[in-house]
TrEMBL record, chain B:
Its EC number is 7.1.1.-. It is found in: Cell membrane. Belongs to the complex I subunit 6 family. This is NADH-quinone oxidoreductase subunit J. InterPro entries: NADH_UbQ/plastoQ_OxRdtase_su6 (IPR001457), Nuo/plastoQ_OxRdtase_6_NuoJ (IPR042106). Pfam families: Oxidored_q3. Its main location: membrane. It comes from Streptomyces gossypii. Keywords: Cell membrane, Membrane, NAD, Quinone, Transmembrane, Transmembrane helix.
Length: 320, 226
């Protein structure tokens, strides 16, 4: 692998990182609007308001970057980068096509992905604490509690699919995928997707940023570009979560005509459908209360994930 | 880890070795700041830097799997749990008055005073003794082993799994029983704290036991899962 190849791959990942979250965001604008009987943004850019998020970005860049007087300046300023960068790192290792269609193949890719995604929550924590604002601190605490609760089922579900495939490498998992894995791993898939939603603080698990209770949680004091970076992190997180669920549980590039070099279309299509589901859930579900969120993780998702692991183990032994 | 026929020596270091030493120095510096800073949350964040540095060292030694597990368990879970605990305590954080305020300096000094512990020197002695013991033992144990970082990956998931579950299965199982005991113990401790309503069972955070005692079962258990 020469330098040019590596540079090209990294540039491609960066482009995906900068465009896909915006695509998801714009889709959310329009899909939410239509589900609610509105039309959403219609003017920016002319055709159905396609440039609305670009306009939003310009607006954010123009705003003053305020750091509260009592805030811990450096940590406050560092937090958005800590929240955003892990998703960029994760995107590098998510495979979208067969035969090297991945930024960089990593031997223990599934561990890398989960480890780095877990580290991203430090950004919200740092922002929540450093803002010197009680709502921010409450948001940070809720974020932490939620992360601690939902990382376990997420890990267990991922472990189940790694057991099924017999490898920790993400491309390796997709390569050994068979269609009957979908019913076999369906519980794990649901647990993984729901836990991922909770880690991203997406509705119905958005109590850490519940506007009617604690303003905007850890992000209350942020303005301008730093606020935009936190928002970008959320949408980059959606892209990463949908990509990962596709790769781990839905067979990635497998599908009709996948052999003719159309595999990457399948990956993108499956991820896009999942992103649509994420948006759909936001429109259709009310926010869970904080204690409901905790109880759901510990009494529903963890036992389900453990059951999935047991099922995977039994089936794996039987078919061998 | 393989025993090389000829020891390559420490003169004329390779690029990896230089990077290893530099990352090691940065890690050590972060660790020192962790225990010397007066702001508790800063200490936890410097701990993230130190643990991340150790993960990089593992990577440089081609122990990829261990490196990711290090990040996943320590940075992603243990430090997050630690921060959660710190945020629940009334830690001496930044003064509540703005920077230019007349009493800012006094409040800041007070906060530093509160963060100081009288056990500073015994703690230093214990830390130095522990470090000396560990360094002596590790250096003595691995004096003659040499990892060829260029030739093959010796810490991949496959290799680690084989070593762990073929040669070291008994210690592994003993450790898992130990962790299970710790998990059960944590649940029992937290139950007791909840029943007494405000009596801190932990005893380490006076006055904050009630806040932590309400629902620590899951959070306390999470650490042991790691």
């Amino acid at each position: 692998m020469d330098v040019l190849d590596v540079a090209l791959r990294l540039v491609a990942v960066l482009v995906v990182f900068l465009t896909f979250p915006l695509l998801v965001g714009q889709t959310e604008h329009k899909v939410m609007a239509h589900m609610q009987g509105r039309v959403g943004p219609m003017y920016a850019g002319g055709f159905h308001g396609w440039a609305q998020l670009v306009a939003d970005g310009v607006k954010f860049a123009q705003k003053e970057d305020v750091v509260p007087d009592g805030a811990d300046r450096r940590i406050f300023q560092l937090a958005p980068a800590v929240a955003l960068l892990p998703y960029l790192l994760v995107l590098i290792v998510i495979p979208f096509g067969p035969d090297g269609g991945v930024g960089q193949e990593i031997d223990a890719g599934i561990f890398f992905v989960l480890a780095v995604m877990g580290a991203g929550v430090l950004g919200s924590l740092m922002g929540g604490w450093a803002s010197a604002n009680k709502f921010s601190l409450l948001g940070g605490l809720r974020t932490t509690a939620q992360l601690i609760a939902y990382e376990l089922p997420m890990l267990l579900a991922a472990a189940s699919v790694a057991m099924a495939a017999g490898t920790l490498s993400l491309p390796g998992i997709v390569e050994s995928f068979e269609w009957w894995w979908v019913p076999w791993q369906i519980i794990g898939a649901l647990v993984f997707f729901i836990a991922g939603l909770a880690e991203l603080q997406r509705p119905p698990f958005d109590a850490p940023v519940a506007d009617s209770e604690i303003i905007f949680g850890a992000y209350t004091e942020y303005t301008g570009l730093r606020f935009a970076l936190f928002l970008l992190a959320e949408y980059a997180g959606i892209v990463v979560l949908c990509g990962l669920t596709t790769v781990l549980f839905l067979g990635g590039w497998h599908g009709p005509f996948a052999e003719d070099g159309m595999g990457w279309v399948w990956t993108l299509l499956k991820a896009a459908i999942l992103a649509f589901v994420v948006i759909w859930l936001r429109v259709s579900y009310p926010r869970l209360r904080e204690d409901q969120i905790m109880r759901f993780a510990w009494t529903t998702l963890v036992p389900l994930a453990l059951f999935q692991i047991a099922l995977t183990g039994v089936v794996k032994v039987v078919i061998q | 880890m393989t025993l090389a026929a000829a020891h390559p020596g420490f003169l004329s270091p390779t690029g990896v070795e230089i990077v290893f030493v530099l990352v090691g120095i940065a890690t050590l510096a972060a660790a020192v700041v962790t225990v010397t800073t007066s702001k508790l949350v800063h200490a936890a964040l410097w701990l993230v830097a130190a643990l991340g540095g150790i993960a990089v060292e593992y990577l440089l030694l081609t122990a990829e799997f261990i490196a990711w597990v290090q990040v996943l368990i320590y940075v992603g879970s243990v430090v997050v749990l630690l921060l959660f605990g710190l945020m629940l305590t009334k830690a001496p954080i930044v003064p509540t008055v703005p920077r230019g305020h007349p009493s800012y300096g006094a409040l800041r000094a007070e906060a530093r005073e509160a963060a100081d512990s009288g056990n500073r020197w015994p703690a230093l002695a214990v830390a130095l003794a522990a470090a000396a013991t560990l360094v002596t033992v590790v250096v003595d144990a691995f004096r003659s082993s040499w990892i060829d970082v260029d030739r093959s990956v010796q810490g991949s998931a496959g290799v680690t799994g084989e070593v762990l579950f073929q040669h070291w299965v008994l210690p592994f199982e003993a450790l898992s029983v130990l962790l299970l005991a710790a998990l059960v113990g944590a649940i029992i401790l937290s139950r007791k704290g909840g029943a007494d309503a405000g009596e801190p069972a932990q005893g380490t955070e006076p006055g904050q036991g009630a806040g932590q005692g309400e629902q620590p079962g899951p959070t306390a258990g999470r650490e042991e899962q790691g």
